[in-house]
Structures are given as C-alpha cells and as structure tokens.
Amino acid sequence: MDGGQNFRVDPDRLWDTLMEMAKIGPGVAGGNNRQTLTDEDAEGRALFQTWCEAAGMSMGVDTMGNMFATREGTDPDALPVYMGSHLDTQPTGGKYDGVLGVLGGLEVIRTLNDLDIKTKHPIVIANWTNEEGTRFAPAMLSSGVFSGKHTQDWAYDRVDADGKRFGDELKRIGWVGDEEVGARKMHAMFELHIEQGPILEAENKDVGVVTHGQGLRWIECTVTGKESHTGSTPMAMRKNAGRGLALVTELVHEIAMKNQPNAVGAIGHIDVYPNSRNIIPGKVVFTVDMRTHLLDKLEAMVAEFNEKAPKLCEEIGVEFECHIVGQFNPPAFDETCVAAVRDAAEELGYTHMDIVSGAGHDACWINDVAPTAMIMCPCVDGLSHNEAEDISKEWAQAGTDVLLHAVLNTAEIVE
Q: Residue 223's pLDDT band (boundaries 50, 70, 90)?
C-alpha cells in the first residue's frame, strides 16, 4: 500500500458499535456476562451477523459455531485474509476483551466500503466460539478444533458446571453450522486484542506489535506430610505439608525472576487437607503455572523446578511429587505478518513496541495452520477479566487503524 494513503477508521462509529454490543449480556458492575453458548451469546451473534450483512458480507458458520463473515476479493482463486477474535466473555468480563478484535474487524470492512476500496484477496472476519473457556474448558476450544489440537467429538462432550454438553448447547442456541471445521484455508490472519496487562500503558505506547505468545506448563504438585494437632505437636517433630507449599511457592518466584524478561511463575489453585484450624496440614495439592515465550527457557525453568522442589521438601521431612497437567509451546508469530503490523504503526505515526502476549488467544492456535500476527492496544491499569476493564476511544482507534493497514497490505489493494 502506498505510504501516502493515510486511511483511518471512524472512531465514533467503532465506539458506538462496541457500546451497542455491550448492551447484550450486561454485567452487574458495568461490564458483560455473555458466556459462550448462552442466550446472550446467541443474541450477540445475531447482532453481529446483522451488521455484517448490512456491510455487504456473506456469513458462513462451521459445525463448532465459528462465524466467518466474508467480503469478496477480485481474484476468486486468492486465499482470504482473516481478522477476528471472540464475542464470548468471562462471567464478570469487560466490554473489550475479544470484542474489540471482532468489531474492529467490522469497522475495517465499513471503512473499506466508505472508501470504495477493493482488494485482490477476500477479507474475512472470524468470531471464534468459546475462546474464554470459562463455561466449557479448555480455553480457545473451537480454534483448537479448527487447528487440529482437539477433535470435534471431544469438544462436543465438554460439560459445564451444570453437566450440560457443549454440543447440546450449541444446537440449543441454533448456531451449529454446516461447514467442516478447519476446511477453510487462510492467506493470513490478524487478531486485534486489548493487552490485558499494564506494559503498553506504562510505556506510553499506542500499539503493541506481538512477536510471540507465551508457552505454558501447568504442573500439579502434591506435598504429603502428616496430620497432627497444631497445639500439641512439637515444632521439631512436625511434618507440615503447608510449609512445603510455602517453600515451593518461593522457589517458583525465584525461578521466574531469574529468567527475566518475559518469564512468569505462580501458584494458583491450592487444596489443603484437612483444612482445619487446629490440624497441621497432612497434604497440599496445588498447581504451578510457568510461562515464557522461548521454548528452551521454559523447559529449563521446569527442569530447575523438578530438580529443586523435591529437595526442599525432603529437607523438612515431607514428600513431593508432581506431573504436568496442561501445556502448550510458545508460538512465534509469522515474521511477514508481524512486519506488516509494525510497518502499519510506523506509517500511521503511532508509538509502538514489540510485546509478548501474556495470555492465550485464538491466534496462538491459528498460527499453526496459517501465517498469523496480533495487534494489541493498552488497557487501563492492565485490568481484564474484570467488569472494570477499560480502554480509551483513542486506543481503540489506533489498534484498528493498524489492523486496517496491515490487512490492506496483505490483501493487496486493486487500483
């Protein structure tokens, strides 16, 4: 695309569209509760389809409920350029997580229509089903099926807290499509998303150019000691599993800090047994979450943990065992697509920096089957998965302007 063409999206129209979608499934504190495969999700999908059809797009839906709105290109043999993210939210979600990527894509199409711009490649907006994974675990479920990470039968059998099956609920809300999942081929895909972290705001940058996603290892650990009375057991004779947890917690922190930058580690879920005020814990089961964007670094972090954690527990007379219960390797996004994002930010004069995505996104799975990149915009205080999640209209515009130009550079304007 000629560098002199300074196309911009309509920030007011984009913002109004975001606020209109936010009316569906309102939360109790200003955000959204539009969990996947609920009636609210169905309503949001219908509104999105209405908007897409009004913009001259055709809608396709696959058997996982993934939605694909297509703007035709001039070359019938050219593979489409995709944009998109997700419309489902956390139970106490914000208005922008995922939604900005879908409705930002819609604003890109509306802007192309306004300017009467044609492209060689078709352009498609995707709404991926069940990105959040709150109601039906795991996260990124449908993009995972699309990219071959999961089978559709396995996905259909996921159940929520009430025992309802994913496949049954997808049928109930009327969004089982007829397309085979994963049959679509992509020229490239771009996902616009809020950062969900504090880095861009702290660095006063308009745009994050996402070079990598983080790899992840979830390590479930069990520390076993001996239950005994907290008042009558001498300190030197205790086998306190809770103390083992404390030592391992500090070890996880030390390993993450030693591997900066872009490495994190923490212990989230913890079960203490018997969990009584006056009984020394005899067993603690907990999960270590380690993440970084370099595979060799991630594997070294896990190896150090596996070496040191048992020794720490042995020294205090308790037993330690662990195994990996969740994992994926860090994706490195396509260099050409990443360059298209960076070039677009520079062309438009937006401040930007390279960044690693701290969360999982649909783009992380799609990256395995198509050239992919992500664009991030700041969010206030890095807050997300919270009804207080907030962004500015200016941040939304900057990210969507960059999306527009990255997509146009990839889809090729027809003069």
A: very high
Contacts of 70 (CB under 8 A, 6+ apart): 57, 58, 59, 60, 80, 122, 123, 124
What are the pLDDT digits (tens) for 369-393? 999 999 999 999 999 999 999 999 9
CA distances from 64 to 157, 179, 242 (A): 12, 9, 43
Phi, psi of 342 (to 5 degrees): -65, -45
At which residue do the structure tokens 């205080």 appear?
381
Give the residue among 374, 372, 373, 378 at the shortest CA–CA distance from 396.
378
The whole-model pTM stands at 0.89
Mapped to the 3 state alphabet, what secondary structure does the chain carry? Answer: CCCCCCCCCCHHHHHHHHHHHHCCCECCCCCECCCCCCHHHHHHHHHHHHHHHHCCCEEEEECCCCEEEEECCCCCCCCCEEEEECCCCCCCECCCCCHHHHHHHHHHHHHHHHCCCEECCCEEEEECCCCCCCCCCCCCHHHHHHCCCCCHHHHHCCECCCCCEHHHHHHHCCCCCCECCCCCCCCEEEEEEECCCCHHHHCCCCEEEEEEECEEEEEEEEEECCCEECCCCCHHHCCCHHHHHHHHHHHHHHHHHHCCCCEEEEEEEEEEECCCCCEECCEEEEEEEEEECCHHHHHHHHHHHHHHHHHHHHHCCCEEEEEEEEEECCCECCHHHHHHHHHHHHHHCCCEEEEEECCCCHHHHHCCCCCEEEEEECCHHHCCCCCCCCCCHHHHHHHHHHHHHHHHHHHCEEC
| Residue 390 CA neighbour count, 13 Å, CB half | 6
Distances (CA, A) of 226 to 136, 159, 254: 36, 36, 27
Specify whether the backbone of 152 is left (phi greater than 0), alpha (psi in -120 to 50) or beta: alpha
How far are the Cα atoms of 134, 169, 225 from residue 280, in angstroms, in the given order?
34, 44, 9
pLDDT in tens, 75-105: 999 999 999 999 999 999 999 999 999 999 9
Q: What does the pLDDT look like over 259-269, one tens digit per residue? A: 999 999 999 89
Look at residue 325 in the predicted model and tell me its pLDDT: 87
Question: What is the rounded distance in angstroms from the CA atom of residue 73 to the CA atom of residue 83?
Answer: 15
